[in-house]
Predict the 3D structure of the following.
Amino acid sequence: MGPSNSVKCYNGYYVNGFKFHTQFYGRYKKTMNSGVCVKGSCYNGNEMDYYGMLEEVIRLKYLGSKCKVFMFKCHWYDTKRGLKKHRSNGLVEIKHTSRLHGSEDFVLAQQYQQAYYTCPPDNKSSEWWAVMKTTARSRYNVEMGEFIENNDNVKTFDVDQSDEISQPCC
């Protein structure tokens, strides 16, 4: 049997100094590791941040190659109609009930920054969350490893962390 392309799903991934979990995997955990932020560019030269929740971590391995690409599939919030930025303090709020519709659910894992969502200080509306973007607390120096979720639904969790952002392919 010769080499083949393969696709594998994971519960989480370490990248850019952040530990990400899928929303489903982290639903009963005390910390949120499924919030994501990606910096995007508009055609007019303005930069815009996109916010979402991690749904799946997908590894693509190419035919006859050791090259692996990790991608995140996310639920994105509509930043055009559901984003408020307070000029006085720079606080960003996202309307988590407003989903961005389109076909660009996947982004390379190396492009992500971690974000946390919480009720805003005024707490007037439950459909708005305050966004807290974080910086990586530390770098993980971990060899390739596995994590088994549970016996009912066995999934592996690869740890593949480099000290800096690298190209997605070998």
Notes: Confidence is low (pLDDT under 50) at residues 140-170. The radius of gyration is 17 Å. Residues 60 and 69 are 5 Å apart (CA to CA).
